[in-house]
Amino acid sequence: MITFPNAKINIGLGITEKRTDGFHNIASCFYPVNWCDMLEMIPSKKLIFQSTGIDIPGNPDGNLCLKAYHLLNEKYDIPPVHMHLHKIIPIGAGLGGGSADGAFAIKMLNDMNSLDLSIKEMEDFSAQMGSDCPFFIENKPVYVTGRGELFDHLDLSLEGKQIVLVNPNIHISTKEAYSGVVPQALTYALKERLLSDISSWKGVVNNDFENSLLDRYPIIKKIKNQLYEQGALYASMTGSGSTIFGIFDEEIDLSNYTEFMVWSGKLD
Ligand SMILES: C[C@](O)(CO)[C@H](O)COP(=O)(O)OP(=O)(O)OC[C@H]1O[C@@H](n2ccc(N)nc2=O)[C@H](O)[C@@H]1O
Ligand SMILES: Nc1ncnc2c1ncn2[C@@H]1O[C@H](COP(=O)(O)OP(=O)(O)OP(=O)(O)O)[C@@H](O)[C@H]1O
Fold this sequence. Notes:
The chain is an alpha+beta fold. The protein has helices at residues 64-76, 97-112, 119-127, 135-138, 174-179, 190-194, 209-216, 218-229; strands at 2-3, 6-18, 24-36, 38-43, 48-53, 81-87, 142-145, 150-152, 162-167, 234-237, 244-248, 261-266.
């Protein structure tokens, strides 16, 4: 079985409160984007994990695909598989790529073993792997609060718009990025604003990580400004960075970004 775990973007990201468990409460819109990894699993005599593509830092035993297997195996004693992850989505990039791999692994193992888990059960397993993981179970645009696991329906469709994602080859640790932010209650109604036309978002719908990271990494600010100069309806850093996205009505010239990792395509 093969699947294509996709990236997400954050449209608006308020970091509203530091929690007693060390995490932060956030408010954000998560929106899926078709920049994808490839994840294949086949039945095997023993559990094997192999990855190709972009190098994944750290011990392969800690890969979220394996973590997903162990979480389900502990409870359901499932047979071993050979997993092959071809890594394409930039890492430490605010795109939730690792989280998507973990959540898709849960969905695949559920299907392959006919476990018949509900969406809620798969979200709960995913939440044990990381804050961004549960979103990728349903994988549709949603308004998110809590640590990243509380979902509110959001009637937002950007279908057909062109998105450009530029990753300036800077790896930002999520933990460090959070430690550089002073939490603050939302100063505007993010959810309501997201329901108004995209042309009204600029300067209003903000990512709170930008305040600390844009000064530290001027290239992020430069790319964001360039995307606006090229006619973006809206541009922002996603998550804890370092990827910046721009949303456009039409395809744009990408020659400004040849030294970076870039993906462009239509939003669903
Ligand atoms: C920045 C976002 O991508 C926005 O969607 C997410 O909040 C990050 O989610 P993630 O990468 O899945 O993060 P996790 O692997 O759960 O946590 C990594 C570290 O980030 C910090 N963290 C993460 C999520 C959160 N809501 N509050 C936090 O303070 C914690 O220090 C945690 O130890
Ligand atoms: N399948 C995976 N893909 C990428 N990183 C993984 C994966 N599984 C585990 N990791 C570990 O997670 C770390 C990256 O986590 P990090 O949260 O910074 O990036 P991410 O999951 O790619 O997405 P984001 O930048 O949005 O958080 C890597 O250094 C690696 O050790």
